[in-house]
Amino acid sequence: MAITTTDWRTSIRANNRKTFIVISIFFLIYFFLGLLIDVFVYAEQYPQANLRDIFYALMTLQLFPLVTLIMSSIAAISLFITLTLNNKLMLLGTEYKEITPSTAMSLGEKQLYNIIEELKIAAGLRYMPRVYIIQANYMNAFASGFSEKSAMVAITSGLLQKLNRSELQAVMAHEISHIRHMDIKLTLIASLLANLIIIVLDFFFRGVLYSKNSSNKRSGGLIIIIVVLRFLLPLINILLLLYLSRTREYMADAGSVELLRDNQPLASALIKINKDYSDNKDAYAQTMVKTPNENVRREAYIFDPVRAGAVPSSSVTDFFSTHPSLEKRLHALGFKYHDPK
Description:
By secondary structure, the chain is mainly α.
């Protein structure tokens, strides 16, 4: 492995800018759809009015954007429910144990709690995240929570047993960085917005299709626009969410190095996790298939179990993945990965 020098603070600032762009795109799409529905509704009420005039009246609030307001309220309620129940949803289907100073029984459990407590102080967090151990042989970890106060970290028993202290500390620093960077809240909001966009689009499509004026020229143009958006927006949503997920992983890796002042432990942990998945691919696959809600946790995991042990990925597979490839993550950490195969 050859070590290179990287400015981690510059990397975090760059990734924050990219994330802001992604979230802005989501909000612009949602705003556009809301206006499109309101234009259609008022076009039905005022068949003699020009679409451009209706759009201008909505933008200047001469006409009240009722549908946009209703959908925004639905989005806010959905967001509140999702954020409130997120921790329970993330642990759903697993056998887990919460670790506290009074419940930590083994030396490994006590060490884990102490590591997270140390990292909490180093990261400047005001609240101690709740700590969970999931009973599973495979090696992985994730963070969850919609705020610093409600944050939690969870690791599998396999990861706790198979990493040494410095590697475990690096993985936990990665998860603490997700909390510090507000990654979880941001990813949840983006996911919810993406799903709501599709729901709104389907609702609008049916409204235009079965409208009493659907046969006129103006509604026909709207139907063409909706059909195009119905196929295009889901693809855009997926690509933006995948890009956002990969960006957050790079940021958390950089945050881990920043907290520990050392890039070696995280690189070592990632290589060890990858090898473990590669060596036990079939057994772990059967376990994950039988474990409910694994697809929900996949994006949050520090290491994507689907990609583990795969051949070096191409730029196309990277583009459609929730996580950067191991090779690219190690390169960002300042190492060059040599595949043992």
